[in-house]
Amino acid sequence: MYNKAIDPAPTRVSQYGVDPKYVLKRGAELKNIVGVPLADLVSGLPPVIFPKAGNDVSTIRKETEAALAKVDMSKITPGSTVNILASHHGFTFYGGQPYAEMLRTIKDMVEQRTECKEVRLRAGLGMRFRETEEYIKAHGLDEYFNGKALGIAPIDAGIPIETELGTLFGLKKAYDADFIIHAHNSDVREVHFHRQVDRAVKPFGMSYARCETRSTYHMNLGPRAANFVARSIFESEFVQSKFAFACFLTMSPAGATGVDADADLYALNDRVTVAGMRDYGKIMTLFGAIDECIVILDFPCPVPYVFACGVIYANMTCANLDVFDLDYPLPPYTWYTETMYDDRGKPLIPEVPPVNPAIKTVVHNYAWIGYPSVFFAEKSPTIVVGKQQAELFDRDPMNLNYMKHALLADNLDGAMDYAYHTTGTDKVILFDGAPGGLNVSAPLAEHLYKVAPGVMERVEQKLLPKWLAQRNVDPSMLDQVA
């Protein structure tokens, strides 16, 4: 007898998604869906501080205060100007409340300890140029920062930054203060891009960079070389002259585990690297052990960014390979983007691996526009629920051809009936942001319970030591990271 389905992440009013009134049924409401507590499947996860009963964010404030108490802020004076640099991804965790509270606490602590009167918020983003404005207003950060909270987009005015790689471009508004505070989160997110190398440094080449520079991850260099771009920006004389410290909301597949702050970003990065491979490596390897499934997208984010157990769907599409393993001759982002495919949708070279063949069909119940997602509909049979959602994608310049590769269903039940009939599988996984667990069909739950012990042993005994060695990380750090 399995547990009832876990409540999914709530829908969100946004210009990038359909009005929640059109999401008539969530995947978790399907009669055959059960909830599997993450602790039943994944061993050794650290305790979470959010979400918990009541979802009281005061715990986030206490953890942030404790972390910042260890940080030297003496370079910030009463007359200084300070930009807290944030990223849109942090607001996708549990409605954004924990991340927003961390940002508020950073502001309060800096003002209290330094008597600085000019602490601003600059929240970077990707291709949805108004997204952080929505988050800022939703969490009252515009008022909390006295009108000095801004969303910054990669098309905003740039500022040249001289680096060892040459002149690169950051966002002018990110650096228009005497000092910057790097306020981020530790989830692995697009691990197929950064490979858990310099994860904590990545926003300097993404969220805080102009489009010409940030595109090195997506279009030009791939993960191996693009990691050097972020590092070179951070290590530039210009950025180092402004960098005060970093403060991260630390995450696991089960939720927020704490707050970590350090004036030494590389020391913090080492801790992020170890915890990410230890915790997310287990759930991602477990996803790779799924032999066949129907995927339901049901979360307020663009197609590749919808969540299950802290892992985005984009990582499910490449779960057929080990993206933490640096031995692969090709950067594993290659099957995730059309960059490595020709105009007929064929791989440019034979070595490009396929999209995870375990994904038999995708039922797109609720996911946003604002990210090029045609590739996903091309590579996996896709059914979109509701004409309003189909029309939204038809109007999105980045997804004009999405529906040309997808079927349209009037409702979720009809979409699932078709998916069951055409795939022949009754294994279903929901990417719906269910906190603390995973919503799946009973047959998939049975499969996961069966394979999980072997996956945990394999990660702990074989894979994790290999991943650490590849990054020259001392295994003793496992005992030092909460």
Shape call: globular
Average of per-residue pLDDT values: 93
Strand content: 15-25%
**C-alpha Rg, in Å?**
22 Å
- Whole-number count of domains: 2
Low-confidence segments, given as residue ranges, are none
End-to-end separation in angstroms reads: 33 Å
Name the structural class: alpha/beta
Question: DSSP helix count?
Answer: 15
Account of the 3D structure:
- Helix 7 runs antiparallel to helix 8 (222-234).
- The chain contains 15 helices and 18 strands.
- The radius of gyration is 22 Å and the shape is globular.
- The strands form 5 sheets. A 6-stranded mixed sheet has the order 5-4-3-8-9-10, sandwiched between helices.
- The protein folds into 2 domains: 3-44 and 291-452, no CATH class; 58-252, no CATH class.
- With 482 residues, the chain is an alpha/beta fold.
- It has helices at residues 38-41, 58-68, 97-114, 131-138, 141-144, 191-194, 211-220, 222-234, 237-242, 265-288, 313-316, 374-379, 387-395, 412-423, 442-470, and strands spanning 3-4, 33-37, 81-87, 118-124, 149-152, 158-163, 166-171, 179-185, 243-252, 255-262, 293-302, 307-308, 311-312, 359-368, 382-385, 406-409, 428-431, 437-441.
- 55% of the residues are buried.
